[in-house]
Design goal:
The complex is a heterodimer of chains A (about 120) and B (about 400). Chain A is of the alpha+beta class and about 120 residues long. Chain A contains three helices and seven strands, in the order H-E-E-E-E-H-E-E-E-H. By secondary structure, chain B is mostly helical. In chain B, about 80% of the residues lie in helices and about 0% in strands. Chain B has 16 helices and no strands. The longest helix of chain B is centred in the C-terminal third of the chain and has 47 residues, at about 255-300. The radius of gyration of chain B is 20 Å and the shape is globular. Classes of the chains: A alpha+beta (about 120), B mainly alpha (about 400). Chain B: This is Natural resistance-associated macrophage protein.
Amino acid sequence: MNALEPDEPAAGKVLDARLHLLDRQVLDPDDVPVATLADLDLEVAEDGTVTIGAMLFGGVFLARLAGGRPPRSLMHKVPWRDVVEVDQTIHLSVGADGLDATWVERWVRDHVIGRIPGAGHAPE
Amino acid sequence: MKRLLGVALGILTAIGGFLDIGDLVTNAVVGSRFGLSLAWVVAVGVVGICVFASMSGRVAAVSGRATFEIIRERLGPRAAAANLGASFLINLLTLTAEVGGIALALQLASSVEPRLWIPVAAFAVWLVIWRVRFKIMENVTGLLGLCLIAFAVAVFLLGPDWSELAAQVMGQGLPEESTTVYWYYAIALFGAAMTPYEVFFFSSGAVEEGWTVKDLSQSRINVLVGFPLGGLLSVAIAACAAIVLLPQAIQVETLSQVVLPVAIGGGKLLLAFVIVGIVAATFGAALETALSSGYTIAQFFGWSWGKFRKPRAAARFHLTMIICLVVAVGVLMTGVDPVLVTEYSVVFSAVALPLTYLPILIVANDPQYMGEHVNSRVMNAVGSLYLGIILIAALAAIPLMVITGAGA
């Protein structure tokens, strides 16, 4: 049996989805953390090329701890076209406040933390 | 001149910030039972915390990523979730011990029952997290913590037989204790010196203060000078107990016994100093553990975190810390003895150490993260050696706890 030939080196930046994308911190344009990337939605075109359709967030902790995956309907989607750059983090072109993935943050801010005096000032 | 002051301030803060309730209690307990025969463990632990604190600080400064973001990314969600569960619970246990420690220290100063002090102490901790800037918080508690030098002063005032102390370091002239109990306390002391929260706090603090590669030399000096001097204070606490308590076969069970040698050696004035030092050290550590609970959870889930943001802009981070403080107060109000909580927290810390330190060692070698600042060979050799020691201590901790009946 012949040994497998190594793949042709691809042009541009090569990203390993597991190593460079999954579980990476996602930041908005002001470097505010949005979430950690939980999963990817892949799209297969007719000619067989696979592209990333969207990033999925949320619901991972309890599901993965039990060994399963959260149902897709419970996860929040952000389209891949909103990504501007990938380095140690994934940078988005859209603000964290406009995303479904951060609704819990907004709820806690508006109903709990925001009501405590001094919440609107940075510590001095 | 300003730079020199900055270096001095950093070192002094590191010394004062090194000790917490775990170090205070464990060193006194060990000193009263084993003299200075376990002083070598403090030395081993201090070198270890120097290695890994500077490594996690370097990773944070170069990549801008704090430790738990890295743990999540490198271990994947499942292993990282298990790690988070363990680290978070032990951190909560340590937070409980520190808040209890503040209350006990305030009781020494005021004779007011600790259960009245516990809610006040926890509220004060929250208020500082809510309103005080990171740098000021660290410097004030660190500098006041320097009052713990009173333990070292007390050693000299007690006028001990130095040759006897030296013999104890070599393990001679001590009452019979079984080997398993000796090693159980060795692990407790090791866990107290290398508590995992210090690394979470140190790396997140580097992000809070916006460290860059330029700040690396300063941080290295802080750690390499400050922590060993803090370790010397640890040994001084053990020495105080070895001089006064060991000959009388008094076993340390309360905080008042920890400070008894200071009162005997230096009278009321020195006692006042040491109480201020203990309040500052436990208060500082309570801040660090409360923040660490927020840091670990927020970094795992990718939430917005940090004291440099307004609390509104890091809502879940602040809510996590509030819940942790409430839980700590709830546990303490049941009347559980904070000294006992401390003794368990240091041993469980030892169990959790490999979970924290392995991912740091891996990422510190990753050129995609670190560029030219990856670990040197010497650093890797020392880091790997310590990982081995940490692993053995972690595996041995629970069996030894069962065999010895938690060091009884």
